[in-house]
Structures are given as C-alpha cells and as structure tokens.
Amino acid sequence: SVVRRRAQAPRDRTHVSPLSDYRTTLHSVPRSPAAPRTMAFLDALSLAGYSAAAQHSTLMSLVLLAAAAGAWALERCQAARRAAPEVAGGLLAASPGGAVALPKDLSMLRRLLPELCAVLLCLSVAGALLICRANDQAVPTEDEEVWRQIRNEWPLLVTADSLVGLQAMLRVPLFASAALRAKEASASPLAGLPTAFLLLAALVQVTLLATSPKDVYHLDGPLGGNIDIAMEGSALALLAYLAAVQLRQWGQSPRCAPALAVLLSLLALGHVAWTNRMALADPGDEHLDVLFSLRHLLELAAALAFLGRALHSAMD
Q1: CA 232/CA 171 separation, integer angstroms
Q2: pLDDT (tens digit, 9 = 90+) per residue, 190-218?
Q3: Which are the contacts of 195, defined by CB distance < 8 A and separation ≥ 6?
Q4: Nearest-angstrom CA–CA distance, 234 and 228
Q5: What pTM was computed for the model?
Q6: Which stretches of sequence are listed as region Disordered (predicted)?
Q7: Shortest CA distance to 153 belongs to which of 18, 20, 46, 52?
Q8: Phi, psi (rounded to 5 degrees) for 286
Q9: Which of 39, 113, 146, 215 shows its CA 20 to 30 Å from the CA of 173?
Q10: Tell me: the pLDDT tens digits for 246-269?
Q11: How far apart are CA 229 and CA 242, in angstroms?
C-alpha cells in the first residue's frame, strides 16, 4: 500500500522514504487528552526494522507452537502410561479381544482430519500464490527501489500484507470447523462472548473493505485483492451462522447480561477507536481509520473473552 500511495501522491510532495509517509500519517491524527502516549512509540519505530522483527517473530512463534505441540504429546503419552502401564510400549493398544485398537489421541486426530486437511489446503494455496504471483506486482519506475527494499525485508511473504492475508485465510477453516460442529459449540470456549466479538469484528472488516478505496485499507501482494475480500466474506458468513445457532440455543434460557456486556463493550471500544487511530485515509474519511482500529480492538476483546472461558472451563 505504501508504494501505491506514493505513486498516486501529488508531485509537489517530497518523499524521502516509506517511513516518512508513515510518520506523516501519525502526526496528522488529532490527539485527544484521553489518548495514550503510544503514538510517540509508533512514531519512533523504523518501518524496515519493524518488518524484519515481525518476520523473525513469526518464525519464532512457529517454533514455539511446535514445542508446545511436542510438550502436549509428551504429556499425553505420560498420562497414558500412568493409566495403562501394560500397554505403554507403543502407540497401538491391545483391546480385550486381542485386536489392535487406536488409542484416544489417534482417534481424536482422525476426528480432526477434516480440519487438518483444510489447514494444509490453505497453506498450500497460500504457498502457491506466493510463488506464482511474487513478481506480478506492477510497480512504477520511480518506486522500483522502494519495492526492491520491501522484497529484501520480506523474502518469503513478499510484502507485510501477506501476513495479514494468511491470517484471514486461516480463519476460514477455524470458523468452518465451529460451524460444522455447531451442536457441540456450547461446550467450546468460542461460544458466547467470543463469537459475538468475532462476528462484530468481521462485520466491521467487511464494511471497511466495502467502503474503503483500494489504495488505502485493501491488502497488496499475492494474498491481497479479491482473495482477501473472499476470505473475509466467508469468515463473516460462517460466524453469522454460528451466532444464529447459538442464539437459538440461548433463546431457550434467555439472559440479558451477555447482550448488555456486548453492547457496553462495543460503545467503550468505539470510543477508544475514535480517540486512538492512524490517519491513513483521505481527509473526510476518518471513519475508515476508526473502523480499522475498532476491528482490532474487537478481536482483542474476543481473545480475552476466549481466554477467560478457557480458564473457567479448566478450573471447573
């Protein structure tokens, strides 16, 4: 997006680097007394260094996820050995009739096979797009140096937008799994407030994409454009179906507290988004900047609500 905005900028402006445009947008935000002093921190960030750090952080996150999966598998194996020491020597357990049966963990993996295949399919499609469309970006001659710098900073993902696009792609199998297992949704930490906040965030994101010019809040790169719009629309449809199922279940024993909590949270987050936003949109389109901040705040609220429900279930 930085390259496209630089290409369409008036010729009488002096552009030094993408970071200069980034700082300009930050300084153009009308700051209120209630806004926190995080804008000075964002202003001091180097865009190039931040991109490299974000990519390094992504790789480290994958390593940590692999380590967590290994620790979970080890803990399950130890639990199985404590429960049945006589069959602790291998993955396959002997049933009472003498036949070989799959343990619970492998049965669970078989039950989750559709979700695993869907995630692998998303990753395969994303990888193919990154390989095939890496050099399909039309860059003006005066911005070739900037584009070359971006490619050096993001050698695998091509642009920073690809990271956001990949996140949107991975949401689809997650929400599809919850929608296909809607009858069991009440036992999931995703039910209730997390679903409500995620639905509002998806609605805000789709509204932002529908009302925003393509050179402002639409993603660039191999995973951007119409692909990102399709992923966000699919996530919204799946969340709407999941919310409808939960509302039918909730109608059997209605409670006003969750609805009131969502309404009050939406008003509070809307105020925070209005007072803490970046001025990326053109003058007169400040509502787009508010929608951008509101979407991320709603997703943060959904994550906190999910964590709270998961801890509550674990304690029970």
Answers
A1: 9
A2: 888 888 899 999 999 999 999 888 878 88
A3: 178, 185, 239, 242, 243, 246
A4: 10
A5: 0.64
A6: 1-21
A7: 52
A8: -60, -25
A9: 215
A10: 887 776 655 677 788 888 989 999
A11: 20
